[in-house]
Amino acid sequence: MNNLEFIDCSKTKINSLKNISDHTNLIEINISSTGITDLSPLSGMGKLVKLTCNNTEINDLSPLIGLMSLKYVDLSYTKVKNLEPLGHLSKLQNVNCDNSLVEDIDPIRFVPVISYKETGVYYSKIDHSEKDEFFEEAARLVVQHQHGSASLIQRKLQIGFNRAGRLIDHLEMEGIVGSFNGESSREVNIKDINALERFFSSTYTNYLEFKRTEEVIQARQQKNHFGTNQPKESNILHQDYPLVQDNTSESMDDLQPETTFPQYPEPSKTVPRWISFILLTTIIIVSILIYQKCK
Question: Which of 15, 47, 121, 289 is the most exposed place for a label (fewest CB within 10 A)?
Fold first, then answer.
């Protein structure tokens, strides 16, 4: 039994770890969703690599101080407030504090992956009135590189990792980068440096709010632009556009379509029908007489 390396007692009624204190070769322990409140029996397990204790009443991490092999710790949905005991564990790679009572993650800033959603970290440690002097420079870096990570800020600005981590937190609070998503780099919400400079010159403290306002203003300006430049229907109908392209200067009255009624000559110029009949008859008679005489 002393060679046991993995124990999973999650979702059981167990409420103590005393019975496994002798298993010093354990590498992984899962005690999530149990009644365990004390981690003291784990203090001698120097080979422990992974500890999952989410959804428990655990609030003290001091028994973990000497576990130098520990790499993964899940503290989500616990009553843990103080992460100082984990600050001595140099091999830590991933710490999950989601929905816990944690208020300060500074002791574990060296950990590559830290999740602390729905905690009091942002509100207790970040103050808009006390911005780091490198804040704007850090923002320009992540926008230019489209890479939101503390390691980039640390390397480019030559500052400590803890300070770079606080800058990333502040950038997230102001909406410049997204929240932690399990990857080493956060999504950058600002895609070009000009948008960032406009945000800095505004009175807004959150880029996402600034962006929404800017989009509304642009939409209104575009609407007004089309509203003033597009001629109304009544104006189009009354435009004096020429219907025929020629060198004459005809008026609109001259360009009206011709009437379909028949055009008769003036009465004064009309020959009476009876006169025409007499003339025609006379011509016929004369023609007959000439023909008979010649015959």
Answer: 289
